[in-house]
Each structure stands twice: as structure tokens, then as C-alpha cells.
Amino acid sequence: MSSTPLDPIKEEPVRDQALDAALRPTIWDEYEGQGHVKANVKVVLDAAKKRGDMPEHLLFYGPPGVGKTTLAHLVALTLEAPIRSTSGVAIERAGDLAAILTNLEPGSILFIDEIHQLGSKVEELLYPALESGTLDIVLGKGPSARTVELPLPRFTLVGATTRVSHISGPLRSRFGGGVYQLDFYSDEDLRSIIKRSLRVLNLSASDAVVEKIASRSRATPRVANALLKRVRDYAEVHEKDITPEVCDLACQMFGIDELGLTKDDKRYLETLATGFKGGPAGIRALASALHEDPDTLENVYEPYLLRLGYIERSPRGRMLTDKGEAYLANAS
Ligand SMILES: Nc1ncnc2c1ncn2[C@@H]1O[C@H](COP(=O)(O)OP(=O)(O)OP(=O)(O)O)[C@@H](O)[C@H]1O
Ligand SMILES: [Mg+2]
Description:
This protein is an alpha/beta fold and 332 residues long. The chain has 14 helices and nine strands. Helices cover 48% and strands 14% of the residues. The strands form three sheets. The chain has a five-stranded parallel beta sheet, covered by helices on one side. A two-stranded antiparallel ribbon has the order 4-5. A two-stranded antiparallel sheet has the order 8-9. Magnesium ion is lined by residues 68-69, 113, 160.
């Protein structure tokens, strides 16, 4: 089954990677939106700095591309702490985690992306590390087995996930610094992000262009930046300035409509409408009809369709709403 992102603008050419690093905010003032989260996290960090201590562990969750990794880096920058980044899938065995923890520089941030993917054995080893800063090593087997507590360097875990419901209760409760939800962005915040990106990329464009890109960005900063870069590419290739017309032409070429929806979003809605008579459709059946895996549906297609109110998730499955039906009627 394909696990490729559905959206053509999410497929980043290699040359964009250096630019992406430049577009990632490195100071709080450049981190737009999420005011509530920012204010709370800053208090936790400031208080820790005043005490001359590391902050308690933090968890960020929300849909892809809304700034979780960026925030983790901002935390490290604020504390002037080294950051060690890894992910839930990369830490396969308890031994992998033990190696990471014992090798941390004291006072580090350990960033674990997609932390919901940690296996249960790894999670168990993580608990005492988070709680008492120790690694519990079991020596021997059977009745003579005993546990030795190895002290670890001081560290703060910053976890990120797109699937907070998959985080176990015991793990969740160990994020004493807070569990923070990052939400979709307003058009106004997206416009500020696009304007900053234009400056970083040394480009100029009118407010009308910024407006157009913002409204097609699926309320997501990563999509806003990716779309801006694709529009820039289109303008470069056609030796044109970035005008609203060029924006429209580029979006047409990439199959992105006025709302930022792609052919794949439409295929999802159409399959739900015709293949499942508007639902309820079970996620697995829907994924199989679309030749996608259920995770991609849940993480890539659905968050924005839910936000638009085009679909609903019920205990019996996915349902197409009247709004979703109206969209399809206009789109075809
Ligand atoms: N609040 C923000 N202000 C400005 N730019 C942002 C903000 N949040 C994200 N971005 C931009 O969007 C890009 C993607 O953000 P980031 O990688 O932090 O998202 P994420 O939530 O970690 O996504 P994923 O779930 O896919 O890992 C960043 O590189 C940055 O350029
Ligand atoms: Mg990330």
C-alpha cells in the first residue's frame, strides 16, 4: 500500500531542505500564533531558568506541519541546551533507549518525535528515567534477579505526536511541564508566516498573493511555505513575477483548489459519497478502497476535512456531511 503523502505540495525536492531550515523560526517572536501554548511554555522555561534547573518534561501534539518540532527547537534555544533528536520508530529496543539516555550531555533536551510509536518495553524503561532520572537495569534472572538504578545525566524530554490518543496514560502523566495541543492556524497568522518567508527567500509579492497562498494552505504553516516555494518555482520557470494570476496558474498546475484541497482530498470525498453512500464507512474499508493506509487517512487527509466540516467521525465510521456533499456538487 502506498504511504506517499497525498498532497503534491508536501513532496519536498532535496534542494528545499536547506531552505526549510532557514524558514524555521529560531526566536519566539517569529513563531506565529499558538499564543496560549507559547505563553504557558515560556512560563515553564522561565521558572526553570530562575531555579537554575531543567524544566519538567513537555509534550506537544497536533496535526502534521503545525510547528511541534519547531517548538521543541525553540525550547532548546531558550534554555541554551543541546538537543538530541530521535523518533518513536527509531528507538526499537529498550537497549536503544538506554544508549541514548546514557550518552546525553547533562542539561540536554531529548526530543522524541512521534513518541506514540514507542514500544511497551521501551516505555517501561523510560518511566523511571523521567521520574527519578535513573535507568533501571535488571541483573540476573529468576529469583536471584535484582534491579540496579543507574543515575542518568539531567535532561528534559520533549515529546511530539500527531496521535495523542495513542499515548498511554502512564506516559502522558509523566509530562509534568504540560501537555500542549497545537492547533490549525488562522489566515492572519499564515499571512505573517508567508510574509516572513518571502523576506527569508528574498522575494517580493503583493498582499493579494499572500492572501491567496494563505487561504490555500490548509491552515498549516508547512503547507504555506511549501506552496510559496512551488509558486516561486513556477514563476521562475516561466520568467514571471509572483502575481495573483501566476499563483492561480501554479495552483491549477499542482491541482490545488481555492480551499487548498487536492485531487486526493476529492477522491477521498467522492469515495465516501459514492462507494459508501456517504457513510458511515469504517476507516479500514475506506483506506482499502483508496489504496492508502489508515494512518495516512487519519493524519493527512482527515484533519483538514474535519476542520472544514466536510466529514464527521462517528463511532460507526466516517460520514460525509451536507457541507461535504455541497462541495462535491460544486467541484464536479
Ligand atoms: N508558529 C509558526 N510560525 C512560523 N512558522 C512556523 C510555525 N510553525 C511551523 N512553522 C513552519 O512550518 C514548518 C513545519 O513545522 P514543524 O516541522 O515544526 O511541524 P510539525 O508539527 O513538527 O510537523 P510533523 O507533525 O510533520 O512533524 C517549519 O519548518 C516552519 O517553517
Ligand atoms: Mg515534526
